[in-house]
Amino acid sequence: MKKINAALILLLAVLFVTIPYFYDKSKVRQGRKLEYVRLYNHADGKIYKLPLEEYLVGVVAAEMPAAFPLDALKAQAVAARTYIVKRLSVGVENPAHPGADICDDCRHGQAWVSREELKERWGAIEYYKYYYKVKKAVDETAGQVITYKGELVDPVYHSSCGGRGTENSGDVWQVNLPYLRAVPCPYCADPEPVRRVSFTLADVGRALGADPAGRPGGVSRAVSDTARDIGVIEKTSTGRPKTVRAGESVVPAVTVRERLGLRSTDFTVQVEGGGITFTTTGYGHAVGMCQYGAKGMAEHGYGCRTIIGHYYSGAEITNMKILTPP
Ligand SMILES: [Zn+2]
Ligand SMILES: [Zn+2]
Predict the structure, then answer these.
(1) Same domain flag for 226 and 312
(2) CA of 76 to the centre of ligand 2 (A)
(3) Pairing between β-strand 157-158 and β-strand 289-290 as defined by DSSP bridges
């Protein structure tokens, strides 16, 4: 993993800002204690210094519904802690926000919400119930992080795999990490995994036809013809579209998802008249922990440790004190 080409990693980090934060060890800032987080808040443009565990309560509340079972919230807390500890331990400042370690926007890292926002979102009564439930999940996992062979993992997660199971990271981001492998999701509890969304052929053609990664020529055809001539040409090991042909263009399914704002790459396409309908299953990139799968596992009596071990193959929960010698 250490040997993964740094340029490739940086390129990927730029291309996929919402996915794992691969780090460049040349930028390590030594001596930083892992006690607090310097958080840039987009709402007021200020940087707040929060104790690590307090910051995590705001992350778990932002990233997973607080109504989920406690063990699913605990798994989320461990993943969120791993993510921020990995960033803090290498001391890389957030490139978008100098002076901060992280911000509250999920597109720049992981989401975070303040207690005031949670009060508004939940109302006074639910606030006390949910806030302390999330806090309990963070407290009961205090100091716990996910490691693979002694190193912190990139603890990526997604909302729902739709029941198909998770993906190999290499099928989605071209980087194969041994702990981000396709695993079944036997208790995926997404109540509404299948969704439909329609576009005009012209919109889809414009979005996919002029792809620079595809073969030239796509742009010379009518944009509607490009969209009409759409088809999956390669699938992942789990059966999701991996590469799509649209007219003369060959486009990764992740690009189709990104450009059209689809919920997932697990889609089928139907062309009808001047329109095109995508039917998607699941929500998110399908790599790492499936949050609705974690909910289902917790509802079936599985604990946080089992959930983490299931979605991060060969990884384990480690107490941070073991990682950071005195
Ligand atoms: Zn930001
Ligand atoms: Zn799932």
Answers:
(1) no
(2) 14
(3) parallel
